[in-house]
Amino acid sequence: MKKSLPLIAMLLLGSHAFAADLLDTVKQRGTLIIALEGTYPPFNFKDKQQQLTGYEVELGNEIAKRLKVKPQFVTGEWSGLLAGLSSGKFDVVMNQVSITDARKKVFDFSQPYTVSSAQLIVRKNETRKLATAEDLKGKKIGVGQGSNYADLAKGMAGVEVKTYPGAPEYLQDLATGRVDAALNDSLLIPFAIKESRLPVKAGAPVGGLTQMGIPFARNNPQFKAALDKTLSAMQADGTLRKISIKWFGTDVSKAPQAR
């Protein structure tokens, strides 16, 4: 028995060392499982024919094509996407996931594919000054549950934060006066306002620029290298810019001053 313990330890170490990289798993399966909300226009949403479309859907299709596999999209509420990724339900999440130090402790990320910032949304007839953290004291702010915008709002002293499954819900509450403002991605706001047809408008920007990337399980260096190589190639040949221009009218893969 004393001799078998080191052997078992060696076998366990060996099995860990030779565990399949995510790239091998994806290639063998023949599909890349991509999780997203499907209710987050113009990044990912369903059109009138109930077909998934949007900026990240097109990017996901192109990434899968270049990896020589098929994309398999899975939709769910934002609050469950990263938890599902942690439990191995998906290969990646493409849903404007900001690259933060906290998230990098749990996941690895691709290189950034979007640069954006947080921005307030207010009612169309709003006359109060709602721009600074001081202005927002005592106000109710609507945010997506589990989002970095929720974290940002919770960091503001004296602000009452209300969380929602997604943008449609808090925009409705904003329009009816249940919250004073909402907080989300500056790139989403023009499209969301247009689609919602609610009496709301873009407000003041909040905080600095944020880089968005594609998270996946840690310790998959071959997958990361392939993903970054694919995104770099799409940047170099103009594909990323072309898709970006289609949905936003500008190249959102670069910081505003570089556009």
Radius of gyration: 21 Å
Oligomer designation:
single chain
Record the strand order, biggest sheet. 7-13-9-12-10-11
Task: Please state the structural category.
Answer: alpha/beta
Count of alpha/pi helices: 10
General form: globular
How is the biggest beta sheet arranged?
A: 6 strands, mixed
Alpha-carbon distance between the termini?
67 Å
Order of helices and strands: HHEEEEHEHEEHEEEHEHEHEEHH
Bin the strand percentage.
25-35%
Instruction: Please report the total strand number as a whole number.
Output: 14
State the helical fraction. Answer: 25-40%
The chain-level mean pLDDT equals: 89
Weakly predicted, low-confidence segments: 1-17
Please explain how this structure is put together.
It is built from ten helices and 14 strands. The protein has helices spanning 4-17, 22-29, 55-66, 78-86, 101-104, 148-154, 167-175, 189-196, 221-236, 239-248; strands at residues 31-36, 39-40, 44-46, 52-53, 70-75, 92-93, 97-98, 107-109, 114-123, 140-144, 160-164, 181-185, 200-213, 215-217. The strands form four sheets. It has a six-stranded mixed β-sheet with strand order 7-13-9-12-10-11, with helices on both faces. The protein has a three-stranded parallel β-sheet with strand order 5-1-6, sandwiched between helices. A hairpin with a 5-residue loop joins strand 3 (44-46) and strand 4 (52-53). It is globular, with a radius of gyration of 21 Å. The N and C termini lie far apart (67 Å). The model is unreliable at 1-17 (pLDDT under 50).
